[in-house]
Design goal:
- With 480 residues, the protein is an alpha/beta fold.
- The protein has 3 domains: 245 residues, Amidase signature (AS) enzymes; 124 residues, D-Maltodextrin-Binding Protein, domain 2, CATH 3.40.190; 62 residues, no CATH class.
- The protein contains 15 helices and 13 strands.
- Strands 1-3-2-6-8-7-12-13-11-9-10 form an 11-stranded mixed sheet, with helices on both faces.
- β12 and β13 form a beta hairpin.
- α2 runs antiparallel to α3, α9 packs across α12 and α9 packs across α13.
- The longest helix has 26 residues.
- The radius of gyration is 21 Å and the shape is globular.
Length: 480
């Protein structure tokens, strides 16, 4: 779709915020133009990325245009379209549902902390993005991108053929398809990295505690985080700058160090002289066929850009503790969240399970085995098995995993294909950045993911930026 206003042949649905702001400064584009382009793309894309459109978006765009005329924009994201995953509370006319029919039509009483920060940045909240129901903590075989309320999200690189990734599926597909320049996803284990890589965009899974979780439907206090999903690393840096910060309502944010200026740290030559760890056993050696060939090309590109690749050994997924921590943490977390939604039909996990059973034809297409497993816990984190599992998670993922590998080999980061390393980083609470790295012969996107120790987002972003600038690997979906 080409812009329908003075400005020539710029596709405003596929360029980054810097280019959009330059067009606005030149008088060739308005925030209202961008909003209209987003709304047109929602209908034209056919990927079902958006569950609810924001009726207030026009007023937000109009206010940004007024600031533009006065030379008083609030920052680089002022007027830029953004999608927010539909498990993040917004105090407006859009419901917050986590994709569940049990929350259909229910509005949150207050903005999530990160939504307040988005509003203060001037970004235009276009709508709420579809997702895998309850961020994929409901059934043990639910497809990525499916929810009982929103239906199935599709990947714009191959609707119905390419995996859309989960659970921030709508956020990933929406950015890839050009519905919004920016999106906010959430991750407990892979839910940003998976759809970002699958949809050929940039995803940032931050250190737990960099971004407040207050006002987000939870799974796990020890692993949950929100994060940026964008088409470029620079936009991811700008969005992370807006989202990061301490919140007295989220204890995890209280120990974060001062937030650096992420965009200012980006360097196109950052890979030169870097040392990157490649975990072959249990990670890279699981790749086969075209995906392996694309991954090998991605590593070769990193070497051409000056990186030294070092084979490292990490605990594999089968060697890490299982999902017990999430199973125990979900019940008290979701009970507390639902208790703050008094206008709805469910106020506890028990209520939710009963509601689903009463509406089984619609709500239980794939069952609710995962909800039932969490319901079987006490719900107060008093079980010794929980504390043992949490200790083992930290020990294996940090001391015997990521930190050991980085220290022993003098590495700046570890590199994985897509979300293959998401589990170990999630258990550690450590950051990862995935960046488009190429495509298989069938056109399926492949991402390269940089993972580091706590609070190293700035370093990971600049490595990803150097890779992005050195390869220019991303190509828009063919129909876009």
């Amino acid at each position: 779709m080409m812009e329908r206003h003075p400005g020539g042949d710029v596709d405003v649905t596929q360029v980054d915020s810097g280019r959009l702001q330059a067009l606005r400064e030149a008088g060739r584009l308005t925030a209202r133009d961008l909003l209209v382009a987003s709304m047109e793309r929602i209908e034209a894309s056919g990927v079902n990325a958006v569950r609810a459109v924001n009726p207030d978006a026009w007023a937000m765009a109009e206010a940004s245009d007024d600031r533009q005329c006065r030379g008083a924009l609030w920052g680089p994201l002022d007027g830029i379209p953004v999608l927010v995953k539909d498990n993040i509370d917004t105090n407006d006319q859009m419901p917050t549902t986590a994709g569940s029919v049990a929350l259909e039509g229910l509005r949150a009483a207050a903005d999530a902390f990160l939504v307040r920060r988005l509003r203060r940045s001037g970004a235009v909240l276009v709508g709420k993005a579809n997702l895998t129901e309850w961020a994929n903590w409901m059934a043990d075989h639910m497809p990525n991108g499916y929810s009982s309320l929103g239906g199935q999200v599709l990947n714009p690189y191959g609707p119905g053929r390419c995996d859309v990734g989960g659970s921030s599926s709508g956020s990933g597909a929406g950015v890839a398809a050009g519905i919004a320049t920016l999106a906010v996803g959430t991750e407990t284990s892979g839910s940003i990295l998976s759809p970002a890589s699958s949809n050929g965009i940039v995803g940032v899974k931050p250190t737990v505690g960099l971004i407040s979780r207050r006002g987000i439907a939870p799974i796990s206090w020890s692993q949950d985080t929100a994060g940026p999903m964008t088409r470029t690393v620079a936009d991811a840096a700008h969005l992370l700058q807006v989202l990061a910060g301490r919140d007295r309502g989220d204890r995890a944010t209280w120990t974060q160090p001062p937030v650096p200026r992420y965009a200012a740290a980006l360097r196109a030559e950052a890979l030169a002289g870097s040392r990157l760890g490649v975990p072959r056993r249990g990670y890279w050696d699981r790749l086969t066929g075209e995906r392996r060939a694309a991954a090998d090309r991605a590593l070769a590109a990193a070497e051409r850009l000056g990186a030294t690749l070092v084979d490292v050994d990490l605990p594999t997924w089968s060697e890490l503790p299982g999902m017990d921590v999430l199973r125990y943490e979900f019940k008290p977390a979701i009970n507390a969240y639902l208790a703050r939604r008094p206008d709805g039909p469910v106020h506890t996990l028990t209520d939710l399970i009963r509601f689903n059973r009463a509406h089984a034809a619609r709500a239980l297409v794939y069952g609710q085995a995962v909800l039932l497993a969490s319901e079987g816990t006490r719900g107060d984190l008093t079980e010794a098995a929980y504390w043992t599992a949490r200790r083992d998670d930290v020990r294996r993922s940090r001391e015997e995993g990521i930190d050991r590998a980085l220290r022993e080999h003098g590495l700046q980061a570890l590199v994985f294909v897509g979300a293959m390393g998401a589990g170990i980083a999630a258990k550690a609470g450590y950051p990862s950045v995935t960046v488009p790295a190429g495509y298989t012969a069938d056109g399926d996107p492949v991402g390269l993911t940089f993972t580091g120790t706590a609070w190293t987002e700035a370093a990971l972003l600049t490595l990803a930026f150097a890779y992005e600038q050195g390869t220019r690997a991303r190509v828009a979906p063919r129909w876009a």
